[in-house]
Design a protein that fits this description.
Layout: E1 38-39, E2 41-43, E3 46-48, E4 55-59, E5 66-71, H1 75-91, H2 98-114, H3 116-127, H4 131-153, H5 156-159, E6 166-167, E7 170-174, H6 180-193, E8 197-201, H7 208-219, E9 227-229, H8 234-242, E10 248-252, H9 255-265, E11 271-275, E12 281-284, H10 290-302, E13 314-318, H11 322-333, H12 354-369, E14 373-375, E15 391-394, H13 401-404, E16 411-417, H14 420-428, E17 435-439, H15 443-452, E18 457-460, E19 479-480, E20 493-494
Parallel strand pairs: 1-5, 7-8, 7-10, 8-9, 10-11, 12-13, 12-17, 13-16, 15-16, 17-18
Antiparallel strand pairs: 2-3, 4-5, 6-20, 11-19, 14-15
Helix pairs in contact: 2-4, 3-4, 4-6, 10-11
Bound molecules: adenosine-5'-diphosphate.
Residues 174-176, 201, 203-204, 233-234, 237-238, 241, 253-254, 257, 260-261 line the site of adenosine-5'-diphosphate.
């Protein structure tokens, strides 16, 4: 017998090597979107000029191009919108049967489905989020919210037995820029289903899909004044909050502004719900399916550039799993495609605004200065627009700003733990309490953790899952009140006499 030299090395490398995929550009066409040069305010069923004539541009964060000029609503305009909502409420909407209100909501839902491509493209143009997210997440969920609450409109007395549920009146609704259309749907659908009318203020950097929704509302023949959409920045929001004619304020946004709004409404007897910031712990045990956990951790923090109040921005890893998880996370980070939001292969789009980019940069710098180790994969960024390389930090301690403050960007802070008790303690060591994630094979451990985590939502072996039937909201500085599900109707109803 002679020794045969092997010609091929059949040994398996310790770590599977990721193939370097090349992707050809796959841009979504913007032709379907018909932008107006200038938008008025949507009050009483039509677009009207603002009283003071103030305007501001809205830009694409990916190119810094001006997309359109929108109107700035001053106190007079806010007053006009609230009056329009009041008269629509008193003269028509509150007395309409639930089944009739439902017809309008179903109509809006169906039109959103029919025009979903147009909405998705516009959302990505104005906000910078990847088209695959606006197409596959924002739009289907926005339509689902209208469908879901349409289903409740004629069943309120079954949802709240032994009382006669009555609408609160006019709702002032202020929404942020991270999920512009979806947040509009979260606010409007339960309010209208319960018989309220609305004055909705979208965020100043992302007003365009709300203004397109105004067209849908016209198309659906909603009685004039039931939904009014006014654009503007913080001052417009503040004027709406301070207007005594808004019976209820619903706000989603930063904790700072939420605190201001709570102060402004305190003692007025007006209703308030706040959905604010978060600093969620995503907790991975050593018995978790590690490859799935890697995907969940990536989705938890890099979905929508990390502009997500419930983002899993603190990763807590069980020590025995740390080395493997970190290697895999770093490898996965290198495969994320950052760039043109309208490219169908893009995973991480543009940061929503220059101000937000600066805020992320400042917090990341603090992480480096305070002694944490930063890792960023090699990544080419476009020349224009606002971009941030997906980033992770190791060697993070609980006292670092990047472990305590909400970054609202694609930045993950990684810490470790040894026991479930330590994981709970670290996860709850935050002023926030919006969401958490647990990755483990053991069902009993999921339940044990979920009981102890002070968070409105606890995801198990998944993250960032939303369903209109499931209530969402926070503890502590993440706010109060729930959106979604039957719970989401309560803030919009008077349930006097309830046992
Ligand atoms: P972020 O800090 O993430 O930009 P904000 O909380 O400032 O989020 O914005 C969320 C929404 O709140 C936006 O529609 C914004 O215009 C509005 N807003 C900002 N300041 C105020 C305020 N003082 N009163 C009411 N609304 C405000």
């Amino acid at each position: 017998m002679t020794d045969v030299e092997p010609t091929t090395d059949l040994s398996v490398p310790a770590e599977p090597v990721m193939p370097a995929w090349e992707y050809a550009p796959a841009p979504e066409s913007t032709e379907i979107v018909r932008l107006r040069e200038r938008y008025g305010l949507f009050i009483g069923g039509e677009f009207v000029e603002p009283a003071t004539g103030g305007t501001f541009p809205t830009i694409s964060p990916a190119t810094e191009e001006v997309l359109a000029v929108v109107s700035e609503a001053g106190p007079e305009d806010v007053d006009r919108a609230v009056r329009a909502a009041r008269s629509a409420h008193d003269q028509h909407w509150r007395d309409l049967s639930g089944a009739e209100r439902a017809k309008y909501l179903y109509r809006i839902a169906r039109i959103l489905q029919e025009r979903s491509r147009e909405f998705a493209v516009l959302e990505s143009m104005d906000g910078g989020k990847p088209i695959k997210e606006s197409r596959d997440v924002d739009l289907p969920l926005a339509a689902a919210h209208f469908f879901y609450y349409a289903g409740w409109a004629d069943k309120l007395e079954y949802a709240f037995p032994h009382v006669e549920p009555r609408p609160v009146g006019v709702a002032g609704q202020i929404i942020p820029w991270n999920f512009p259309l979806l947040m509009a749907a979260w606010k409007l659908a339960p309010a209208l289903a319960a018989g309220n009318t609305s004055v909705l203020k979208p965020a100043e950097t992302t007003p365009l899909t709300a203004l397109l929704l105004a067209e849908v509302i016209q198309q659906a023949d909603l009685p004039p004044g039931v939904v009014n959409i006014i654009t503007g920045a913080g001052a417009t929001g503040a004027a709406l909050v301070e207007h005594p004619g808004a019976d209820k304020i619903a706000f989603t946004g930063s904790t700072d502004v939420g605190k201001r709004i709570q102060r402004a409404t305190a003692g007025t007897g007006r209703r308030l719900t706040l959905e604010l910031g978060g600093k969620a712990a995503n907790i991975v045990f050593d018995d978790a399916p590690i490859d799935q956990a890697v995907e969940g951790v990536i989705n938890g923090i890099f979905f929508n550039q990390g502009h997500v109040c419930c983002a899993g921005s603190r990763l807590l890893v069980h020590e025995p799993a740390y080395d493997e998880l970190l290697d895999k996370l770093k490898a996965r980070l290198g495969t994320l495609r950052v760039g043109d939001p309208l490219d169908k292969n893009t995973d991480v789009g543009a940061i929503n605004s220059r101000a937000q980019l600066e805020k992320i940069g400042e917090l990341v710098e603090s992480g480096v200065e305070e002694g944490a180790q930063m890792y960023q994969p090699p990544c080419e960024l476009p020349d224009r627009g606002f971009w941030f390389v997906p980033t992770l930090f190791t060697g993070v301690s609980q006292s670092h700003r990047i472990a305590r403050e909400e970054i609202f960007g694609p930045v993950l802070s990684i810490m470790t733990f040894r026991t479930p008790e330590e994981a709970v303690e670290k996860a709850n060591n935050t002023p926030y309490g919006l969401s958490a994630g647990v990755w483990t094979e053991k069902g009993s451990r999921i339940l044990w953790m979920a009981e102890r985590l002070r968070a409105g939502v606890v995801w198990a072996n998944t993250f960032n899952r939303f369903d209109p039937a499931s209530p969402f909201g926070g503890y502590k500085e993440s706010g109060f009140g729930r959106e979604g599900g039957v719970h989401g109707l309560e803030p919009y109803l008077r349930l006097e006499g309830r046992p």
